[in-house]
Every structure is written in C-alpha cells, then in structure tokens.
Amino acid sequence: xxxxxxxxxxxxVADFLxxxxxxxxxxxxxxxxxxxxxxxxxxxxxxPSCLSSKDAGSVCAILMVLAVGTQFAHMESSIPxxxxxSNSAFDDxxxxxxxxxxxxxxxxxxxxxxxxIATANVRSVQACLLIGTYLxxxxxxxxxxTYFGLAxxxxxxxxxxxxYTGEGLSPRMIEIRNRVFWTAYxxxx
Length: 189
Description:
Distance between the termini: 32 Å
Radius of gyration: 16 Å
Structural class: mainly alpha
Number of helices: 9
Mean pLDDT: 87
Strand content: under 5%
C-alpha cells in the first residue's frame, strides 16, 4: 500500500487534478463523493502509515481520480501540467507529458487490483469504474469494459442493485451506493 502512495505528486498538483476531475469528469456520472475523496487524500499525505490493504479501493480511487484529472488538465491550466512539478517519481529530465503522469497513476493503481477484488466493497466498485473511465479513451481493445463489467459484478455482489433494507448504513451511504450502482450499470450497458 505504501508504494502506491509514494507516486502521489506534490499536494498542490493533486489538489489541482482533483478539482479538474470534479469540474470536467464527474459531470454526467457519479464516481466518488468529493468530501470523502479529499479526506482520504489528506490521509495519504499526512498519515499514510495508517492505510492498510482494506484501503486498497480508496487508494486506487484516489490514484484514478488523479489519472482521469490528467486527461482534462489541459482544459484548465494555462501552464502545461508537465511544468507544474519536478517530482522525481515522474521524470528524470523534467520532461514528461500529462499522459505519462496519468499512466504512472494507473500503473500503481492496477497493482492494487488483487486487494480491491478481495475486499469487493463500494470503494472497490468505485475504483474499477474509475479505472475503466481512465482507459476508455486510451483503449481500443476494450479493456475498459472489463473493468466496467467487474465494477457491475461487484456492485451486484454487494446488493447495490436492490433497495437497502438493513440498518447498518447511513442514508448518505445508501444514496452513494445507489448512485455508484446506476453509474456502473449505465456505463457498462
């Protein structure tokens, strides 16, 4: 888990990419709740040692929000993203593209896939949706639909397709589950 967090960019770059994600990418579909994501991102920067394999879906979702954000960064930045940071995790000669940065996030996120599948919770569904969304414009062979299908299967496994009748979840989490399910369903179908 700690190696995945090491690929995070400087905080101001992450904040910029998160802002871009919510402004451009999460307009017609619901992937993650902004306050939750910002809280988890803060944990990654301030106390990454408290993250465990149970947080794989959350960390993967964060990485993929950043990756998707790189796909839209050019729409908002007057300075190319490749000039925002000189973080050695991304470049050797201070020359890299937004695509390279997004690909780095994707590669670290995909290493979390076994833990994501093992936990198979709502955060796992969100992570798979985000991976599929990132791959959608990049993937001509349809790998993105594998992730969308996996997200939908995990959502159904978790009963997200049925009206929740239990008492263990807050109304807010019930609504999040509904929104995530319908996003997975509409994208996958």
